[in-house]
Amino acid sequence: MQISTKKEKPTVLIVDDMTTNLLILSDLLKDEYQIKIAKNGQKALDIVHSSDEVDIILLDIMMPDIDGYEVCRQLKSNPKTKKLPIIIVTAKDNDEDEEYGLNLGAIDYITKPFNKAIVRLRIRNHLELKLKSDLLEELSMYDGLTHIPNRRFFDQVFQSTYKEVKRENKSLAVLMIDIDFFKLYNDNYGHGKGDEALKKVAQSLQMTLKRPTDLVARYGGEEFVVLLKDISEENVKKIALNLLQSIRELQISHEYSKVEQIITISIGVAYKTASSLINKVELLICADEALYDVKRTSRNSYHIISV
To answer: Helix 191-208 to helix 233-248 angle, to the nearest 10 degrees?
Structure first.
């Protein structure tokens, strides 16, 4: 499993209409952080929406175009930026203003004139919390046993990929994969051996896929799912055959299988042509139906439904 690492220096966006305040904060933080500055609220929004490099914002409230409260409100109402930490740094020092800013979603509220050491510590602590939160979020997208993406990860990628191929009139294939007679394997060899087999199958499926955009995830239990975009139906068939062969080549003994004396898989494929109007829910249903068909008739094989 590859867990992404943060860049060496996190990026702090300082938003203030007073040049003096920008200089003071920039000088205070430049040795530990990459610094971006914005002299008004609109510029701050433009910077955040034009890149994903900003890690935390120091936000003034009293600005001439869009005040800090409105900047905070817009960022927190947008799903893409709602988790971005915002520290309000302002001369407004009454309790009502602080409560209002925190209610909008700011994680901290610092009043001017500020203590430089306190500003540094609060930024450091909030960034450490964000890093831990981001890592936990990323870990939650991976299956703890097989260390490949899990169903939650697949669902998110599938949503965005479906929109992309629909917008660009490209093809998309969903492959539902089931290990043949895996319950009999677990019942007779034990769950420890079953877990070992699942890990080997997951690794083999992942290694068989060659393109960077190809995705395999554990869908639950002994089920896996593969997502292939912008691909011909003929190449989908080749990949399905390669996946079948890769599992057979593992030669994991399964004397209780009703197919072969080794672990095998069955694959149901739903192939969306570039011109198809099928929706994403129907595409998953078709893949599941294709898997059911192959399990009912043959196993250790694949069945494709082109829509």
So the answer is: 140
Q: Is residue 143 part of a domain?
A: no
DSSP symbols for the chain:
-------SS-EEEEE-S-HHHHHHHHHHHTTTSEEEEESSHHHHHHHHHH-S-EEEEEE-S--SSS-HHHHHHHHHHSTTTTTS-EEEEES--SHHHHHHHHHHT-SEEEESSPPHHHHHHHHHHHHHHHHHHHHHHHHTTB-TTT-SB-HHHHHHHHHHHHHHHHHHT--EEEEEEEETTHHHHHHHH-HHHHHHHHHHHHHHHHHH--STT-EEEEEETTEEEEEEES--HHHHHHHHHHHHHHHHTT--B-TT-SS-SB--EEEEEEEE-TT----HHHHHHHHHHHHHHHHHHTSSSEEEEE-
Which CATH number fits the domain that encloses residue 221? 3.30.70.270
Q: Which of 128, 164, 196, 222 is catalytic?
A: 222
Q: Which of 134, 164, 198 is the last residue of a domain?
A: 134
CB 129 within 8 A of CB 143: no
CB-based contacts of 211: which residues, under 8 Å, 6+ apart?
Answer: 228
d(CA 126, CA 47): 21
Is there a domain that residue 2 lies in?
A: no
289 is catalytic: no
pLDDT (tens digit, 9 = 90+) per residue, 259-301? 999 999 999 999 999 999 999 999 999 999 999 999 999 999 9
Would the pTM of this model clear 0.90, i.e. be above it? no
